[in-house]
Design goal:
β1 and β2 form a beta hairpin. It contains two helices and six strands. Helix content is 15%, strand content 27%. It has a two-stranded antiparallel ribbon with strand order 1-2.
Length: 81
Amino acid sequence: MLSTIQKWGNSQGLRLAKTVLQDARLKVGDQVDIRVDKGHIVIAPTTRVRGRYDLRELLSNMPERRRVEGFDQPTERKEAG
């Protein structure tokens, strides 16, 4: 899909076709994460924990000195019997 960046008031915007939103499982009013990756604009649905927090965003704000390189993963429990 081709689109043109347009001026809307003091901002710029893109119009997204309904089919693009449907394919991305997004709807009007949904919150998205917008970032630049290697010169490309990436728009992705946010992942909310309990409807309020984005885990990736929370972890990105964690001070470096508090970050852990690795951590123990839960082990599988074997059922008795």
